[in-house]
Amino acid sequence: MSRVVVVGAGLAGLTAATDLSRAGVEVTVLEARDRVGGRTHGIEVAPGAWIDGGAAYLGNRHTELAKTIADLGLKTVRTTMVGHSRFVLGRDRVTREGRFPPLSAVALGDLFDHLDDLAHRVHRDAPWRSDVADDETAAEWAQRILKHPDARAFFPLFLGEMMATDPADVSVLHMAFYLSSGGGLRYLNAFEGGAQDSRIDGGAHQLCQRLADRLGPDVVHLNTAVHTIEQTPRSAAVYSATGMHTCDAVVVAVPPALADEILLRNIAPARRTTARTAPGRAVKVHLIYPEPLWREQGLSGWSVNSNGPLMSTVDDSPAGARAGVLTGFVTGREATRYAALSPAEQRCEAVTQAAEVFPGLPEPTGFRVSNWVRERYSRGCYAALFGPGDWKLLGPHLTAPHGRVHWAGAETSTEYFGLMEGAIRSGHRAAAEVLAHRQPLPW
Amino acid sequence: MTVKGVSEIFGRVLQVGDVEAESDFFTLGGDSLLATRVLSAVARDYGVELSFDEFAIAPTPAALAERIASLR
Fold first, then answer.
1. CA A416 to mean position of chain CA atoms
2. Which ipTM value was assigned to this complex?
């Protein structure tokens, strides 16, 4: 095995390319966009001060990500949340300590008990074999199981924040799988000591930039969208609008919906999405101020809101606070509506709501939207949403190579599915597969 | 009696052994999400519905048992 083409210069693809390159393989990475990074993307909010327009958070269980961070000479910063939270649930605006909403604790405890029970019933290595319903949506499940109005009201907010989905999008199995895969309900939900414990100092986009820089300028080809992969008994050929690359193996490291757009010739195609698979429904909105003004009022910037567009907000100010950044998460069904608005409407709605949640907040000096729902070469964020039946159909061949074609990407990892950690693990796995097949060729 | 029962709930929710009557839930590694699961278990076992704030003021088995006893 001397030549490999990697499709996609996100974390999964660049991790695979790095492993292969280190093993002496001649690697070419083809990236459709004019940048590397995939669902990580840096936004400069003040000279030298960057925030994450995409994936941002990590925790201590993200061990492969930690190795990559250390290897690239990057550092992490803790996600601090000092001060009171705001909750606008219905008509009332409530200010209180901590992240707990002003709802019935017993009702929410019941909800979390149910979710925890589901997560524990997931077969971690083969989710499609779990003892959890794959034919029911999370919305139907909630309708059947949740009796208390507070639990019913909170469930879509919780699921939106946790996995950028509307409850109607995902099967109960996918919801349970996602919770299990990410380390369990508590770990996924927590900031301190959980999956949102830290961020990468200077932005997560540096991971891919540095990986690409190390691979060298001739390795990563930007603006090169792959449309066809052809394979023969002796080789594979990868086609883009600008040319053709022959190789011995291909690693496709793009989200499932994009992988399905690539035509695989000479091999029975196994689809990676179905009509029920939905794009992750998240838009990230950044309101930029000269400084974190809410802190002066004793507020953390954290809010949870039952009405959109900003379903939750968090203080995303860069370390050193050369700017104050309030990041709003538009998730679930609301993301689909908001994503379709004009930029002026998006700004107006977000600024109006921010001023309602945090009275006294002036007009922001900057405003940025990371519209992942409309992003041509991501097709949603945080990750693809598996609908009813998807796991049974798609799960068994999530990682199975198709001849010379291997699959990577955050959605191919049953560990930390959809997260940076999952992407990196999938990249290592795909590279190891390719190297194991080196000689003699088994096909 | 209730103290022992609440200690067991703490242990189950936090997945730790050795919960004592005066052990603080948050010091043992609890957070608000896990606290709600203690309160749902308390409601099931003792028929008493406590709020998150009531729990946060008295997050030990002994104090919680006293609170439960006063409300039953």
1. 10
2. 0.95
